[in-house]
Amino acid sequence: MNVLRKVENQTLHARVYQELRNAIIRGHFAPGEVVTIRRLATELGTSVMPVREAIHRLISERAIEMQGSRSMRIAMLTREKIEDLIRVRSIIEPEAVYLAAGRIGEDDILELEVLNRKLMRAIKHGDVDDKLLANRAFHFAVYEIAASPMLLQVIDSLWLQSGPYLQSLFASADRFHEELGTEFINDELIEAFRKGDAGLARRIREKDIRVSAEWYLNHLDE
Amino acid sequence: MNVLRKVENQTLHARVYQELRNAIIRGHFAPGEVVTIRRLATELGTSVMPVREAIHRLISERAIEMQGSRSMRIAMLTREKIEDLIRVRSIIEPEAVYLAAGRIGEDDILELEVLNRKLMRAIKHGDVDDKLLANRAFHFAVYEIAASPMLLQVIDSLWLQSGPYLQSLFASADRFHEELGTEFINDELIEAFRKGDAGLARRIREKDIRVSAEWYLNHLDE
DNA sequence: GCCCCTGATATGTGATCACATATCTTGTTC
DNA sequence: GAACAAGATATGTGATCACATATCAGGGGC
Question: What are the two backbone dihedrals, phi and then psi, of residue A74, each rounded to the nearest 5 degrees?
Fold first, then answer.
């Protein structure tokens, strides 16, 4: 049996990219927070080079914004941008669910039930980090089943940009599930998968995205 | 009156990125062609630094593939990848058309008619470059009307990856329009816009993407 | 004549340096 | 005491260098 840990094989800038990306997704940076290459390099213990490449990639993915010519900040989500993101997500993700419903197998469904239980446990007892990770794990497991690398890439990019929004949403996940009665919406989704009703599954996911966003936008002023 | 040309203000790596991106979209690189940073830097007359950043961005956008740890090539489109791209494009782009139909104005329609005439002229008399540019101009004009930056970004990324496919398709554009009788499909689209029939416009665009792809895939063996 | 080994070349990556300029600090003047 | 200007600092960008290693060529052994 091999007891060696898998050696860290990626290039440094790839690791820095993953590190920053995860930090952004988990909301470890405040939206609008100014980042500088040299500061991040110091914190990560590297030179500026890998950080430069990672940052530029995140800028091209719109997770970081170039302000002037010499100032970069974590992307801010205006109400307008959130509405746009949600509009696009409610087009694409339900369609991915529809595709997944056409290819899903019994073992996939069992796997989804496990992930959903983890998610519900995280929402009940976990911190925001747990909730976000469990939520991502569940939905990306669904999207993986759709077996479309392109779709997965697109959705991944949209979720990266949704980071701060999801962060806020799941910070009060129990409250909004309670108010909307959507606590068991993923169970409904799984049930639709089991019945083989792809259209229903699509509608459920669309409703989930839309209703959550409406609730969030209505409570934005608070 | 200011007679000065607008000074080239962007950073060098941004310009290199645009240069390479355009070259890929226009098919100036062969799919699978090996590219090296140093060679491109020499050709472009810069050091390796700007090229590095541009290349890494194109890799993250899947226009360039990292083969081993030390070899990069222009992305190749397998039949499988094309099918996936088309599947995703037939989901997203008709939806963008649907959104555009709900916001389009008479002046937009006039503009589209101009662009469509240019496209048809390019297909009749232009070279592949002209056809590709005119086609892109027409459809992106439609997508701009949808007024969704996110959607535009997603579609842009899909078109970048479709580069070699579109290149082949438009190389025989007149032939496939003749065989399929789709020469006036954009006129139909504009007509649907004029009637305010968003659903029809969506169906037309969906059919356009699907039928073109089927024709192309059927002729792939030749 | 074919295969494998070894040295040479090529290549991506990371670090450091140089530079222009945006941003902040501080001191001076009214 | 406040406003503005000049110097200092910080920062992104581009070039160059160093290095590990992948890739290739040529020669030697069987």
Answer: -60, 135
Q: What is the DSSP letter of A72?
A: E
Residues 24-43 of A with CB under 7 A from strand D: 35-39
Three-class SS of residue A128?
helix
- Selection from A215-219, B143-147, B185-189 with the highest mean pLDDT: B143-147
Residue A48 contacts strand D, CB under 7 A: yes
Give per-residue pLDDT as tens, B48-59: 999 999 999 999
B20, two tokens: 């390479």
* Chain centroid offset of residue B131 CA: 11
| B60-B83-B143 Cα angle (round to 5) | 65
Lookup: tokens for B126: 């232009």
Residues 69-128 of chain A in contact with strand D via CB under 7 angstroms = 69-72
Question: Residue A9 has what pLDDT?
Answer: 61
Nearest to B176 by CA among B202, B139, B205, B208: B208
Q: Which nucleotide is nearest to A56 (CA to C1')?
A: D12
Residue A114 sits at the chain B interface (C-beta within 8 Å):
no
Bridge partner list, A66: A72
B66: left (phi over 0), alpha (psi -120 to 50) or beta: beta
User: Who has greater pLDDT, B23 or B3?
Assistant: B23
- Give distance CA B71 / C1' D30 (Å): 35
Strand D proximity: list residues 39-58 of B with CB under 7 Å.
46-50, 53
Residue percentage of chain B with pLDDT more than 70: 95
Average pLDDT of the residues in B168-180 = 80
Question: Which of B53, B81, B149 faces A84 most closely, judged by CB atoms?
Answer: B149
List the domains of chain B with CATH numbers: 12-74 (1.10.10.10), 79-218 (1.20.120.530)
Q: How far is A177 from chain B (nearest CA, A)?
A: 27
